[in-house]
Write a structure and sequence with these properties.
Number of domains: 2
CATH topology of the largest domain: Rossmann fold
Oligomer: single chain
Number of strands: 14
CATH architecture of the largest domain: 3-Layer(aba) Sandwich
Distance between the termini: 35 Å
Low-confidence stretches: none
Strand content: 25-35%
Strand order of the largest sheet: 6-7-8-3-9-10
Helix content: 25-40%
Length: 306
């Protein structure tokens, strides 16, 4: 089956000699939510711009549902909806006319019922007659999504979709994205909100300094690389960590109120009895025990650091 997006050995070098992307190979499957993570300047936006035809690649090939983005540009571009980082909107136009115009740009027949459904899905319908310049930043971000969906694309790019959006609006947008994915839309998002990737993505790609350093199923990634912590809550806070306790592998945290013991759940199982006995011998009273799995953010930061 043809991938939604197939990227083969793609590089981008600017006239200044700066190499923004280096031999990128990536396949994104139909209907999946793919999160592309990376620090500022890693190449996330450049890669999206290449696929969408905004920037010209230096070498390699990119296909969208089997259509080459250069030799079959029109067919490829019709399948793509793009929500850019920048809030670039016609500020004196209404929400309705903006979305209607976007649909017409792709040669789609008029379908007011479809546009109405998109605006309602994004909680924008009551603002359809409002001018763009009267909307909040979060609402403008929603209009960008509505514009991208107006021509009914099968692939949706979201470049930092939650930037400047409050928590409530962000969660609403996540619900919309999930519904789109359930209906078969392929979604590729770049984000600085690691929780967004952790909640939304089927697979995660990490890009750094123009190179893809990892692509993995999110659950598999967290199982492979996720560390666990044993958290020990103390009845009385410690001013410092006794040497004997430090030798057991504990670290002091939260102003001495808790101790942490980090371990790889795939390789070892902590001897809880031994640890508790050690604490008891040092006359340290334990109030509670809990375990904590590393988050995707911990894994991401560790990968980029390495």
């Amino acid at each position: 089956m043809t991938s939604a997006i197939s990227i083969q050995n793609v590089s981008k070098t600017y006239k200044t000699g700066f190499s923004a992307l280096k031999a990128i190979n990536l396949d994104i499957e139909n209907g999946e939510i793919f999160a592309l993570l990376g620090p500022n300047g890693a190449g996330k936006t450049t890669l999206i711009s290449l696929i969408c035809g905004i920037v010209t690649k230096t070498s390699g090939s990119i296909k969208v549902a089997g259509h080459d983005i250069n030799s079959d540009y029109r067919a490829a571009r019709k399948l793509i909806g793009l929500v850019p980082q920048e809030l670039s909107l016609p500020i004196f136009e209404t929400v309705w006319s903006t979305v209607k115009f976007s649909r017409a740009l792709f040669g789609k027949p008029r379908d007011d019922a479809k546009l109405e459904a998109i605006l309602k899905q994004l909680s924008l319908f009551d603002k359809k007659d409002a001018k763009i310049n009267s909307l909040s930043g979060g609402m403008k971000r929603r209009v960008l999504i509505a514009k991208a969906l107006a021509h009914e694309p099968s692939i949706l790019f979201l470049d930092e979709p939650s930037a400047g959006v409050d928590v409530e609006l962000r969660k609403d947008m996540w619900n919309v994205m999930r519904k789109l994915a359930e209906d078969g839309t392929t979604i590729i998002l770049t984000t600085h909100y690691i929780e967004e990737a952790e909640m939304m993505a089927d697979r995660v790609g990490v890009i750094n300094k123009g190179e893809i350093i990892l692509v993995e199923d999110k659950k598999v990634l967290m199982e492979k690389l996720g560390q666990k912590q044993l958290i020990v809550s103390l009845e009385e806070p410690l001013d410092r960590l006794p040497t004997k306790i430090a030798k057991l592998g504990f670290n002091l945290m939260q102003s001495g109120k808790k101790l942490s013991y980090q371990y790889d759940s795939k390789k070892e199982k902590p001897d809880i009895a031994k640890l508790i006995t050690g604490l008891s011998a040092a006359q340290i009273a334990v109030a509670d025990l809990s375990t904590q799995q590393s988050s995707l953010e911990d894994i991401f930061l560790d990968l980029v650091k390495k």
